[in-house]
Input
Amino acid sequence: MIGESISLRIGMYWKDYLNLDLPTLDYHPTASEFPTIRLLNNVAVGGHAAIAYWICKTRLAFRYNFCNDLFEKNDMIQQEIYNLETTKADVITIHDMYWAVRTDKVPTSFDRILAFNILAADAIGNGASSIYYLTQSPSLLGNENRAYDLYFQELNYFMEMVVDTISCDTTTSNESIGIKVSVLDWAKLICPTVETPGKICKKYGVHNFDDILPDRKHPYGDSGLWLSREALAVVL
Output
């Protein structure tokens, strides 16, 4: 699990799931009947971008001031971007609000796509089979258009990048080396009407919970447990 504070919270819920004492069954279920997680590494860092820092692992790092700050000050982010080399994770899950919408670290489209491509190459090189990208938590501030606009800004940007820029070439006889990249629609899970123009994303009563996001951003309490479990079911 990589990303910022939302990713960190989701990973906490997933770790709690791993520690559950499940009842003993009188038979051994198959992986398809009862998928399990061998190990979960939650290396998300609250308040920081994630994908952008993969540029810092290349010889282009000198072009970006934030790479200097990274190697001088932030051991936690260094641990995040070098984690794949030690864990050899099979599945990588990302929630990074700083990549497609809040782009202060890597302001140009070229830089953002380059960073994601470096991350994907790093994942492939360390044996990963898939990447799940979670859309960001929608705005619950009562503005009719804000959640809708940001949702489609992120989704359109991501799909254009995957389809038009970094997708594998399947037209040639030589097979491209690639990795499966999926969008896990976290925003729509929180707000089922987020893709409907003019609809406000509600904070109360969604999926019969008193408050779907108590602090308007992070999963928390019973609703957070349900949201994170639903996301985990998709990944598994």
